[in-house]
């Protein structure tokens, strides 16, 4: 048997060249995205001096893993993580419930003033959050008496215009024929929503869940404003422990950032496929 | 019986009159002189301290709670940075949810007074029963009282010194020795010394600067004061920093940046730059000492000297640091809050706080305590700073000052960026803006 070299199809070389260029660009983008994470880890294992020296060192000259233990000991992280977990889970579920119901109503129900009401909803999205901070604070502390509680960090965010909009866009794309068929089978709106719409909306629901969860996880300004004691405060407030008006302990701050960011990175790695699908299906672009 | 009552009343009136003639009676206040029944009184103090300082403050508060004998319990609550604390207090005023005490800059207190929520401390300070004696008051540095008296509000004492410091010059003595110069005392000497400290590498790039210029309103105020200027007009209605001292200071800053003897560092980089001998001088708060020391790769010889002056015999710098304000609440809580503030300002406590936090003690006699004397054996620069407290001058405590600080910082940044080239006109324009802010806040 003799080996015969097959003629190379025309354009293969150009294609390979394009692939290499594409991969080079992707590798460049990956480095840009990954570098802040590397920098965080690298700084987290440096001494204070090395972390603040200029020009900065790319690799730690000495590894100071004890920074993680020091940073962990500098704030009641166990309490902060527990609080964040509670706030994130309850808040996300609550927001999902209100958003799904509202989005379904805007997408599939017919009622007087629907268009105007939806526009009104969207208009509230244009109001900067800073403008509502003091009225919200007064409402929560003075009238609801929820100051310094976990509830105060959840209740004001149980409805989200963005989530409603995202879900509505997706619900509108579900064919009417499915609803007609469900109706013939005797299903009402809630049953149709539960048995047909939601199973068809998993990617967008995962997207909304992730975005909402991250919103609760990243919250800093509002929890700081509405809480007073560490017993009810979330993780982001712990991050502020390493800064003073005269300087910052960057190495400890980065060590703390590492364990604060770890759960989010893990969740994202597991759910990124759904996140991308969900955003793509709703036609939203970043 | 009526006669007896009349005689007794007459005797009391005469006795009161006589005692009044013998010595001026301290300001009387039934609220400042009440007895605390020993019933539990819970107080909350909102603060901004983190890390080691927060732990030290907590330990001291725990000691107060266990030893005050009046049932007072102070709870510390961290509320983020000063700005965040300020915003939270503004929100809390709206919601009627203020704590009993809060750490505050003077400009914050002036803003809180819009709602008339801050307690006048004069009756408490002068209370025969719960106040401070004249000697004790004289032991507290006068500038610390000056800064907490608000001319805009009838010169009332509306807050009390808590975390004080002053603008000083971090001076690398090794560099001065190398270039054969001594610590500059005047601005002209400073400019010449900073220029002499500059070093360039073989490639012509600067490897060592004379001065790391930290842009800030307080630093600017220090420059004005050290050049013989004042910050406010006598009637506190217009700014007075928009004059020649400011023009000279900003012009010099720009000139030194342009000729390469000064630069503007990013963030806290000036600490590491100083620690690695990349710059000879940094003008910063005395409280930054531990951060500077942490950035020393190897020990260096350094001092905390006065910022340069127009007339070193009349040295003046700016006083930094926050105070503590007591908010109006019940008479019992107000008095309990005052008793805590008074306790914290005692020589023993203020010395302990100074050692643990690197802030300046508020009393002169704190310097006589073993606590500080022992600490100064290793913290030589702490003693140098302590010796200069008397030259520190408060910043304006008028309403609107917080916005005026932004005007000053915008001016300095614009000059550094080359957006403002006519410095005299720029300073004057900033003064006009500041005066408008003051007018709007009357």
Largest sheet of chain B: 11 strands, mixed
Radius of gyration of chain A: 25 Å
What is the residue-averaged pLDDT of chain B?
91
From the spread of the alpha carbons, the general shape of chain B counts as globular
> Structural class per helix/strand content of chain B?
alpha/beta
Give the mean pLDDT of chain A: 89
Distance between the termini of chain A: 57 Å
In percent terms, what proportion of residues of chain B is strand? 15-25%
Number of strands of chain B: 13
Structural class of chain A: mainly alpha
Report on the architecture of this protein:
The complex is a heterodimer of chains A (286) and B (442). Chain A is mostly helical. Helix content of chain A is 68%, strand content 1%. Chain A contains 13 helices and two strands; from the N terminus they run H-H-H-H-H-H-H-H-H-H-H-H-E-E-H. In chain A, strands 1-2 form a two-stranded antiparallel ribbon. In chain A, strand 1 and strand 2 form a beta hairpin. In chain A, helix 1 runs antiparallel to helix 13, helix 3 crosses helix 13 and helix 10 packs antiparallel against helix 13. Chain A is flat and about 70 Å long. The model of chain A has no long low-confidence stretch (mean pLDDT 89). By secondary structure, chain B is an alpha/beta fold. Chain B is 47% helix and 16% strand. Chain B is built from 19 helices and 13 strands. In chain B, strands 1, 2, 3, 6, 7, 8, 9, 10, 11, 12 and 13 form an eleven-stranded mixed sheet that branches. In chain B, strands 4-5 form a two-stranded antiparallel ribbon. In chain B, helix 10 packs across helix 11 and helix 16 packs across helix 17. The longest helix of chain B is centred in the first third of the chain and has 21 residues. Chain B is globular. The N and C termini of chain B lie far apart (57 Å). The interface between A and B is large, with 30 and 42 residues.
């Amino acid at each position: 048997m003799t080996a015969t070299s097959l003629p190379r199809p025309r354009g293969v070389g150009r294609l390979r060249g394009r692939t290499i260029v594409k991969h080079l660009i992707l590798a460049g983008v990956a480095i840009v995205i990954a570098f802040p994470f590397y920098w965080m880890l690298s700084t987290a294992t440096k001494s204070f001096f090395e972390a603040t020296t200029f020009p900065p060192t790319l690799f730690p000259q000495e590894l100071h893993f004890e920074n993680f233990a020091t940073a962990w000991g500098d704030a009641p992280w166990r309490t902060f993580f527990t609080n964040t977990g509670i706030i994130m889970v309850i808040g996300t579920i609550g927001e999902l419930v209100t958003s799904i119901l509202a989005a379904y109503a805007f997408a599939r129900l017919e009622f007087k003033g629907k268009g105007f009401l939806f526009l009104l909803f969207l208009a509230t999205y244009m109001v900067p959050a800073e403008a509502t901070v003091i009225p919200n604070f007064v409402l929560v502390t003075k009238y609801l008496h929820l100051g310094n509680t976990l509830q105060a960090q959840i209740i004001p965010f149980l409805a989200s215009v963005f989530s409603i909009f995202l879900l509505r866009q997706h619900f509108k794309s579900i064919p009417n024929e499915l609803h007609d068929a469900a109706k013939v089978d005797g299903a009402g709106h809630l049953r149709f929503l539960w048995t047909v719409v939601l199973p068809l909306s998993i990617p967008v629901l995962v997207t909304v869940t992730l975005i909402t969860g991250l919103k609760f996880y990243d919250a800093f300004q509002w929890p700081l404003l509405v809480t007073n004691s560490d017993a009810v405060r979330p993780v982001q407030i712990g991050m502020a422990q390493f800064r003073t008006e005269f300087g910052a302990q960057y190495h400890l701050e980065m060590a703390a950032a590492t364990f604060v960011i770890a759960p989010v990175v893990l969740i994202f790695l597991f759910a990124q496929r759904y996140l991308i699908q969900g955003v793509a299906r709703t036609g939203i672009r970043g | 019986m009526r006669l007896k009552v009349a005689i007794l009343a007459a005797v009391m009136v005469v006795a009161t009159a006589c005692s009044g003639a013998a010595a001026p009676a301290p300001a009387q206040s039934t609220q400042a002189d009440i007895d605390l029944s020993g019933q539990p009184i819970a107080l909350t103090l909102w603060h901004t301290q983190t890390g080691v300082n927060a732990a030290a403050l907590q330990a001291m508060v725990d000691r107060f709670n266990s030893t005050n004998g009046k049932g007072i319990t102070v709870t510390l609550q961290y509320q983020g940075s000063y700005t965040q604390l300020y915003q939270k207090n503004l929100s809390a005023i709206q919601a009627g949810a203020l704590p009993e005490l809060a750490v505050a800059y003077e400009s914050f207190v002036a803003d809180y007074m819009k709602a008339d929520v801050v307690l006048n401390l004069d009756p408490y300070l002068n209370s025969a029963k719960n106040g401070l004696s004249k000697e004790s008051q004289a032991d507290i540095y006068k500038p610390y009282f000056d800064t907490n008296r608000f001319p805009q509000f009838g010169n009332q004492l509306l807050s009390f010194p808590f975390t004080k410091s002053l603008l000083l010059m971090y001076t690398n003595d090794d560099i001065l020795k190398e270039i054969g110069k001594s610590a500059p005392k005047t601005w002209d000497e400073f400019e010449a010394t900073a220029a002499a400290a500059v070093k360039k590498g073989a490639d012509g790039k600067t490897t060592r600067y004379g001065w790391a210029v930290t842009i800030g309103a307080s630093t600017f105020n220090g420059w004005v004061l050290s050049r013989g200027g004042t910050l406010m007009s006598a009637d506190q209605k217009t700014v007075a920093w928009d004059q020649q001292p400011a023009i000279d200071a900003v012009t010099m800053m720009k000139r030194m940046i342009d000729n390469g003897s000064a630069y503007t560092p990013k963030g806290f980089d000036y600490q590491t730059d100083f620690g690695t001998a990349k710059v000879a001088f940094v003008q910063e708060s005395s409280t930054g000492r531990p951060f500077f020391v942490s950035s020393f790769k190897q020990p260096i010889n350094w001092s905390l000297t006065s910022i340069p002056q127009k007339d070193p015999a009349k040295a003046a710098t700016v006083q930094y640091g926050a105070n503590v304000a007591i908010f109006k609440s019940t008479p019992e809580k107000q008095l309990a809050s005052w008793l805590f503030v008074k306790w914290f300002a005692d020589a023993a406590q203020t010395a302990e706080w100074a050692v643990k936090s690197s802030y300046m003690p508020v009393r002169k006699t704190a310097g006589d305590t073993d606590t500080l004397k022992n600490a100064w054996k290793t913290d030589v620069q702490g003693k140098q700073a302590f010796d200069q407290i008397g030259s520190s001058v408060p910043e304006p405590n008028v309403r609107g000052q917080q916005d005026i600080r932004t005007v000053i910082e915008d001016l300095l940044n614009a000059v550094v960026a080359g957006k403002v080239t006519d410095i005299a006109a720029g300073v004057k324009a900033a003064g006009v803006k500041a005066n408008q802010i003051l007018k709007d806040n009357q």
